[in-house]
Amino acid sequence: MRNWTARPICAFDLETTGRDPHSARIVTASVVTVDDGPPRPRNWILDPGIEIPEDASAVHGISTGQARTHGQDYATGYRQIREALTGAWRAGYAVVAFNAAYDLTVLDAEARRLGWPPLDDYGLVLDPYVIDRALDPDREGRRTLGALCEHYGVELASAHHAEADALAAATLARLLPQRFPVLRECDDMMGSQAAWHARRQRDLVEYLHREGRVTSDVDEQWPIRRPAA
Question: What band does 35 get if pLDDT is binned at 50, 70 and 90?
Fold first, then answer.
């Protein structure tokens, strides 16, 4: 089997109605195939069927009115997005998602709400957010997509536009093994990323406890945060 760094990439990004991946609905999505030729994007705008909060619209630029006017049927759009991803995995692509535990959890949670099976048929996921934090833990500063692009010299044409974010994440996924050659020797990227994410979350809990703070937004699961039983 070829090394994971030689896999073609399918980059994925969602913009949604909110921060909680268990309740957020999809507003825009992009699935971009990146292999030997020019990137091939597929983009969606969906009508989430609910009001898009103003703070969410301020991030991605899509208002409730725009989504209702230009967005396609939500269930149909969801099916197309999910089939694009699962088709990429079946074809041997690595799916790149920045902070995958958010985007893939949204996809899984919406499957349950819409009556689909859980998102269990996934393959290799590459998460530049998790990889960067694990390989360069002492670097100060933010770890947003924009911050990582600035740090690594990657162009981010239009932050919080799904296609631009997906393309930037794909570039980071190709760049990180060059910056951190140890990644090329990693035979279990899924297991490694899951372990790196869980360790980071445990460290976060310990830090918050020391600060006398409590948060519910801590979950060791990666790449999908399953609902509590």
Answer: confident
